[in-house]
Amino acid sequence: AQKITQTQPGMFVQEKEAVTLDCTYDTSDQSYGLFWYKQPSSGEMIFLIYQGSYDEQNATEGRYSLNFQKARKSANLVISASQLGDSAMYFCAMSREDSNYQLIWGAGTKLIIKP
Amino acid sequence: DTAVSQTPKYLVTQMGNDKSIKCEQNLGHDTMYWYKQDSKKFLKIMFSYNNKELIINETVPNRFSPKSPDKAHLNLHINSLELGDSAVYFCASSPRGLGYNEQFFGPGTRLTVL
Fold first, then answer.
1. Which residue in B has a C-alpha nearest to residue A52's C-alpha?
2. CA distance B4 to B36
3. What are the pLDDT digits (tens) for A1-31?
4. Which residues does A57 contact at the CB level (< 8 Å), separation at least 6?
5. Are A115 and A84 in contact (CB under 8 A)?
6. Cβ–Cβ of B45/A103 closer than 8 Å?
7. What does the pLDDT look like over B2-21, one tens digit per residue?
8. Which residues contact B62 (CB under 8 A, 6 or more apart)?
9. Which residue has the higher pLDDT, B101 or B11?
10. Which of B39, B47, B51, B55 is nearest to B21 (CA)?
11. Are A107 and B45 within 8 A, CB to CB?
12. Residues of A in contact with B41 (CB under 8 A)
């Protein structure tokens, strides 16, 4: 079965430090997509970044980058220069063609940025 | 302009009642979804529609019925509400039909069943 694992239920990080949120996935597919979403305490889900399995370069979006290691089946999110507003739940998700591209979600990591 | 909107934002009701949650997207997207997020924050897909056609129907009770009157709307009707239905329900949409597309989420509807 396809699975997304986020091993860090919670993390505390000092403001301005970089933070890495772990995500590993399990699939035998060659073609898939990987996503990260942010859910602040206000509850909305915000798309952050996408990585396709055939993309040769790691995706970057502003302070967010995705450390994609295909052989290890990991897709860690790196946030550089963390800010207080980065405090939120972060979800990793995977999309597969065989399942009509529906997203399979990890359990999330609660990130708290300390001033 | 709101991209994906849901109404109501909060819904408190008694067990056994029937309720609906409405979702509209003004992004011109082809695909819409309903998710349930439980108290442990776990997100579970419930339904997905592509151009008004049901394409994903996960194992949810028959009491839940989605209705898509047009491409921009996907409403969720719940019959005979139970305590375990209490959760946050998210509507989402994605562009370009099926594919590796990011999903745009509505603000969520917090349903509390008493």
1. B100
2. 16
3. 678 999 999 999 999 999 999 999 998 888 8
4. none
5. yes
6. yes
7. 699 999 999 999 999 999 99
8. none
9. B11
10. B47
11. no
12. 39, 89, 107-108
